[in-house]
Fold:
Amino acid sequence: MISIEHLTVKCDNKIILDDISMDIKKGEFVGILGPNGAGKTTLIKAILGLLDFPYQGSVKIDGLSAKEYMKIKRGLIGYLPQHAIVNWNMPIRVIDAVLIENVKPFGLFLKHSKRDMAAAEHWLSVFGVAEYKDTYIRELSGGQQQRVSLARCMIHNPELLILDEPNTAIDAVYNAKMYEILKELSRKNNMTIVMVSHDIGAVTTYVDEVMCLNVKLHCHGSVKNIDFATVFKEVYGKDMEIVIHGNQCKNCVVNKGSIR
Amino acid sequence: MIWDILIRAAVVGILLSVLLSVMSYFVVLRKMTFAGVGIAHSAFGGIALSFLLGLGGYLLPIVFSVLSSLLIAFMYKKGKMSEDSAIDVIFVFSMAFGVFILSMSDGYSANMLGILFGNILSVSYVDFILSLFVFVFGFLFIAYYFSHFQLMSYNEELAYISGVRVDVLYYMFWVVLSIIIVLAIKLIGIILVNAFLVLPTLVGLNLAKNYKNIVFVSMLSSTISIIAGISIAYLLDTPAGATIVLVFILLWVFSIAYNKIKT
Ligand SMILES: Nc1ncnc2c1ncn2[C@@H]1O[C@H](COP(=O)(O)OP(=O)(O)O)[C@@H](O)[C@H]1O
Ligand SMILES: [Mg+2]
Structure:
C-alpha cells in the first residue's frame, strides 16, 4: 500500500531522514518508535505529501503520489496530527469537530445531514465520548479531545489511518482499549494503520510490524523477529535499559533516561 | 438631502462593517489581528501617495495595499524570523512614508484626519456602487468558503488532505481583506477599520458560544454601532468615525459585563 524508496529529507543541511526505504502492506498495523526529533512526524508528513521542504527519493501510496491518491480517493485517509498543532480554541462543538472535514460550499448556512450525524455519533460512542457531542471542544480534557480526533479520523471509513502520537494525554486504562479498537479495525476492515507512539510496551504488544527510527531506519519487521534489546540501545542511546519478561508480558521496558 | 446622505452613509457603513465582521472571525481565531492591523496601516502609504499625485481613485491604494498584504501574509506563513517584528517594519514604514508624502501635499491635517477617521458623510454615488459591488463579491467569497476556512483554522494539514487548496485560499483571504480595507478606510478611516477587524468577534465571543451565533452576533453588533454612531454623530455634531468606534467599545464593555455576570 505504501512504498518508500531512498527517502532523504534535509533541512538547512541538517539530515532529518537518511535513506529510508520501506513497504507497508494493505491491512498492516505498523508502529513507529523513536526518540524525540527522530524524524517520525517528518516521515508521516512525507507519506501524506505534507512536507514543506524538498526531499529526495520516492513515496507512493498504491503506486500514486500522495496528491494523486487524495484526488482519487478523497476522504479515504484518516489523519491524526500531533495533538498540540490542532486549534482546540475554536468555538465549535464536538459534533462539528468530528465532521469538520466535510467542507461544503456555503457551509456557514448548512446543517449536517442525518447520515453524517449518525456516523459521527457512532464513532464518538466507539471511542467512549458520545455524551460530549454538544460540548465545546475547548471544554474537554486533553484525553477527551484526543478521542474526538480519533472519531474524526474514522468518519469516512478510511483505507489508510495515520496516527501521530494518538496516546498523548490518554490515560493508561483507556490506552489499552484504544489499541484494542485499532487492532480490531485493522483486522476486520482491512484498514492499514501507521501509528507513531512513545508507548513502547503497548506498541510491541498490539502491532503487526514495528519500525525503529532515528534519522535512519534501524529496524523494520514483525515484533517477534526483532531483538529489541540491541535495537533500542542503538536507537535511544545507552540510557535505556530493557527488561524483557519471559511469558508474563511480552516486552516491558524500563527507561532510566527520558524518552520524551 | 441630509437624509439622503445619512442613509447612503449608513448603508455603505453597514455593508462594509458586516463584511469585515465575518472576516474578523478568522482574523481573531487564527490570532492574526496584528497582521490585519498591519495591512490596514500599510494602506496608508498608498492613499497618501494618491493624494499627492492628485489621483482620487482607488486603484493606487488597492495595488499598494494588496502587495503589502501579500508580503505580510507570506511572512506569516513562512514565519522564519519573528513575523510580528517584520509586520511592524512594514506598518511603520508605510505610516512614515504616508505622513512624509502628505506633508508635501496641501491640506496636510485635513487629509490626515480623513485617513485616520474617514468621512462617512461624504459617500459619493461611485463609492456607494463600488461598496455594493465589493460587499456582494466579498460576502459570496467568505460565505462560500466558510467551512474551508474553518477547517484551515482548525488544522491546515487536515484541510490539505481534505482537498482544500490551502495556499490559494489563504492568500485570497488577505487579498479580499485588503481590498475591503482600502474601500473602508476612505469611508470610515483606519481607526474604525481596525476596530471592525477585532471588536465584532470579541463581542461575539462574549455573547455567544457557537461559531454560527458568534458570526451572527458580530454582524449585528457592527450594524448597531454604525446606526447608533451615525445617529449620535448627527445629533451631537461629532465626527462620525470616532463616534462609531466609541459606541462599539461601549458595546464591547457591556458584552464583557454580560459574560462576567453569566459565569
Ligand atoms: N519545519 C522544520 N524546520 C526545521 N527543522 C525541522 C522542521 N520540522 C522538523 N524539523 C527537525 O527535524 C527533526 C525531526 O523532527 P520530527 O519529525 O518532528 O521528529 P519526531 O516527530 O520524531 O519527534 C527535528 O530535529 C526537528 O528539529
Ligand atoms: Mg513528532
User: Anything to note?
Assistant: The radius of gyration of chain B is 18 Å.
